[in-house]
Amino acid sequence: MPCDARGVLLITRQMEGTATNVARQRIELHCSLPEGHAGAHRDASQNQDWLVVQGRPTLLLRDESESPGNTER
Ligand SMILES: [Zn+2]
Q1: How far is the CA of 43 from the centre of ligand 1 (A)?
Q2: How far is ligand 1, taken at its centre, from the CA of residue 11, in Å?
Q3: In a domain? residue 50
Q4: Angle CA 59–64–68, to nearest 5
Q5: How many domains does the chain have?
Q6: How many angstroms is it from 54 CA to the middle of ligand 1?
Q7: What is the pLDDT of residues 21-34, one digit of tens each?
Q8: Is residue 40 a contact partner of residue 51, using CB atoms and an 8 Å limit?
Q9: Residue 40 to residue 31: CA distance in whole angstroms
Q10: Within-domain flag for 72
């Protein structure tokens, strides 16, 4: 059986001229490692790993403000 731990990944981008991070995209993560694995959970399809704090929903933020194509300074 797969581990199937879940998390949520929010892609954020900082608004130009402000300190506000805006969520651009919300991606659901499912751990694709075998049940009982050691270490961080991992969603291979998103190339993202994460740790779960017991009893709390996992929310990850990925800031893509500096991604190519958005290099205006
Ligand atoms: Zn897992």
Answers
A1: 8
A2: 21
A3: yes
A4: 160
A5: 1
A6: 12
A7: 788 899 999 999 99
A8: yes
A9: 9
A10: no
Q: Determine, yes or no, domain membership for 70.
A: no
Query: The pTM is what?
Result: 0.68
Instruction: Kindly tell me if the per-residue pLDDT of 1 is higher than 90.
Output: no
In-domain check, residue 24: yes
Contacts of 17 (CB under 8 A, 6+ apart): none
Domain of residue 26 covers 6-63
What is the Å distance from ligand 1's center to 25 Cα? 23
Predicted local confidence at residue 29, as pLDDT: 93
**More reliable by pLDDT, 7 or 71:** 7
Average pLDDT (43-71) is 78
CA distance 6 to 57: 8
Residue 71 has pLDDT above 80, yes or no: no
Q: What is the rounded distance in angstroms from the CA atom of residue 38 to the CA atom of residue 17?
A: 42
